[in-house]
Structure formats: structure tokens, C-alpha cells
Amino acid sequence: MGILKALTKVRGGYPGGWREYARGYKKDGVDPFDQPVSPDDRRSQIPALGYPEYWYPAVPDKDVSWKKPVGLRLLGTDVTLFRDKSGQVQALWDYCPHRGVYLSWGDCFWKGYLSCPYHGATFDGDGECVEFITEGPDSKMVGQLKAKKFPTATLKGLVFIWMGEGEPVPPEEDLPPEFFEGETTLVLNTLRYWHCNWMIGLENQSDSHNCFWVHRNSLLQLRSRTGGRARTPLGYRSERVNDKATIPLRGAEQYYFEDGKMPYKLYYPRAQAYWPLHSWRLLWTWFFEFFDKRNTNRERFDTPEEWRGMRLPGMHRLYFGGPSAMYTRWCIPVDKDLTRVVYFRSMRIPTKLGRIWETVTYKLYRNWVAHYNFSDQDYDAMRSTRYQYPEYLSATDSHVVAQRRLMTDYARGGEKFKTVEVAKETTAEKLVADYNNQVAAMKPEVAAGTSRLMAGSTRPVTSDMAGEQGDKDNVV
Q1: How distant, in Å, are the alpha carbons of 43, 68, 119, 143 from that of 92?
Q2: Cβ(342)–Cβ(201) under 8 Å?
Q3: Residue 378 pLDDT more than 90?
Q4: 377, 214 Cβ separation under 8 angstroms
Q5: In the chain, N or C: fewer CB atoms in 10 Å?
Q6: Which residues are paired to 424 by β-bridges?
Q7: Residues 95, 149: Cα–Cα separation, whole Å
Q8: How many CB atoms neighbour CB 279 within 10 A?
Q9: What residue ranges define each of the domains in the chain, with the CATH number in brackets?
Q10: Of the candidates 363, 323, 329, 360, which has an alpha carbon nearest to the alpha carbon of residue 343?
Q11: pTM (2 decimals)?
Q12: Which residues contact residue 106 at a Cβ distance below 8 angstroms, ignoring those fewer than 6 apart?
């Protein structure tokens, strides 16, 4: 029975296969999402439905037909998408201004127009009522009725929507640079749903330690002798870049290194035991590590520094699946208890045959391995996280501090969500800083050696930057 259970975990997620999670986890027995209200808790300032003054990915362009509109909920708002006379995908509030019916339940009987299912109010791509079928050609509603429009942009086969009330910023400010590159830049995408709040999903992505523990039986981590990132009581520092992103400053993983390597087993003295319990993975990991070393010599996917790490309004970008590929995971609120997760895999491939090969292998292997088998193993933790209760953070949670500060202090339009004045440094943040200082004092050479390894940069981080959680030089 134990072997079957282990194989189930490896096959496609925790604890079942990928089909069980294709539309997210069931909410049975899970507390609804709630937030703390204390002014001493930065989580009280982060809106449960996200920050609307940004562009967000919606649906693949190919999934919007000429005949039927598509309904979608983003940030607690229902929108409907359809094609206008020119063939461009447009988005309207999914609410008929006549009687409030879902426009997405209607039809596009006339090419380029959307008709409401209740009385036939018919709208163009700008939301203007051009006909009112049940009142005939002389209807006085024409020209008077207007549906709310959301700006859209279609890039690399994906439709994006501006969800804000204000004038939209240029899409280049909010969307990864590769969406604006030529055909030699391939961007593949996958859409998922998780039954948890978007911020919980976002914070999980950069967790510096759960990879070794939660994902140890995923296919990706079964290839590695460490099962993920190395164990260490020292948390990654994060540097804020242009008030738009936080990028990790690596080096803390060397805490237990011996002769430049991480021991396979560590001894836990209070339990008088070793972890991992067994060494059977070493029978095959050498084979994959041989090829992984060769992959490290491949050309790195170059991108501006502010497009690495955790980027506003809710995406993470890192090298995952090789240095030549940029991985993006974007957590988008649907409701306060449901998150829409959009994955991008970006690569620059000069040949058409190479792009075809990458697309085929993504559909047959990479997508399932990374976004189902690997990522689904986080579900039990994410869906059961009770955000409203006090936290007792560790030194390894410094990424959480950095992300929450970025959200509350720098998100566009975030000021309207501030209901109470939060302390400059909360109790949880002080706790992280204190633990980091204690651990850094035990091995100051590791703390002082924490450095940038992003995109090959090796600018050292000074010891006072590495040993404190203050906001010096944008490092937290």
C-alpha cells in the first residue's frame, strides 16, 4: 500500500493524479479565506481581490470564436469577451446595462456584435448599443445604452485585459518583455485554477525551503540528490528593483556546505536521526546531474532585472527548466477563495523547427511535469493556510517580508486599500530580522557571502545588508 501511495504522488500531484486538480481543489472542509485586521499585520493591507490598476492575462485568443462570447471572472469582476468587426477580441463588463443579465450567455448572431440573451440589446466592440432586437429597427435604446468596456491587447496568442478604472498604462509596463519580441521568441502558456487566495499562491512560489520537503517525490526532484533547494536556517534576502520587483540574493544555501558541496544527509540531534532516511536516490541522480551540468553552459535567457523574481502585480519569474528558459507564474484573483494561475515558458529559438520541437515537448512532457506533477503538490498547504491567524515567522521567511512590503507600499492604486496605518516594521518582520541576525552571527562568512547570481551578476552584498532586515539600499 505504501508503494502505491508513493507512486500516486509521483504520478501527478499530491495526493492524486492531474485530473483531480484540473479545475483546482475542492473546498470541502476548508475554511473560507479571511484576513487579519490588526494594524500590526501587513497582511491586513493586501486586497483579497488584488490590485485592479494593471493589465492581466485573460484567455487564449484562439478560444474566442465569432459565434459565442466567452465569460470570465477576474479580480471579482465578470467580463465577457467577443470579436468585433475587425476580428479583434474586445471585453465588456458581463452585465447588460438594460436589466443586468449576463452578456456572456448571449450570442454573436451578427458578425462583430454581441446580443444580450434577454431582450436582444446588441453591442459593438466599444460597448455601444447599435440595435435592440425585441424593439425593432426604430428602438430608442440605440445610442442611449452603453456597456462598460475594458481595454484589451492580444500578444503572442494571449488576450490581456486592463482591469482598472483609470487610464490604462502601456502594456509594456505590466507585461513581460518577451511578449513584444519577434517570432523567434516563443511564449507557451498554461492556465490553472487553485482554491486558495491569490496572495497565498504567490507567497508559496518563492518559498525557499518547501521544495526540498513538499516536492521531494515529484519527477523533477527525483532527479536531484537534494530534492530541491538546500536546507539552511538562513533566509534568502531580497532586493527591491525600481519599486516593481523583489529579486532573491542567493548564497544562503551554502550554510551547511562542506568542501563546496552540500552533504546528502544531515544529522538532527534532538531527534537523534538523519534526513533523508535513505540513500537510494543516489543510484540514479548522478546520471541526471551529469546532463544538468552541461545545461548550465547554455546561454541564459536575458531579461531586465526588474523582470526577475516577484513582480507586481502578482507574478514570479525565474530560471526553471534550464537557464535558456524563463519561467513565469502569475497568480490572478478570481474570488477571494479562488486563484487563476497562468504559466508562461519563454524561450528564444531562432529556427522554426526548434520552436515546433519545443512546443511539442511542452505539450507532451514539460507542461505536465512542471505545472501538474510538481505544482499540484503545494495544494494541501495552500488550501489549508488560514491567513487570518497570527504567524510566527522564521528567518527563512524573509522573502515573505519583502513581497508584502512591495505589495503594500508600491502597488499601483494600492493606497485606496489602506484602511489602517501599519507600523514601519511589524512584529512578524522584527521576528524575521532577529532570527536572521542570530543565524548570520553563527556563520558570518556565509551571510557576508550572500551575493547576486541573477543573470551572471556577482555584485557582493555587504555584511550589514545580509545581516539585517531593514530597508537599506532596497534590501530586505
Answers
A1: 32, 14, 17, 17
A2: no
A3: no
A4: yes
A5: N
A6: none
A7: 11
A8: 11
A9: 60-163 (2.102.10.10), 183-474 (3.90.380)
A10: 329
A11: 0.85
A12: 69, 114, 115, 116, 117
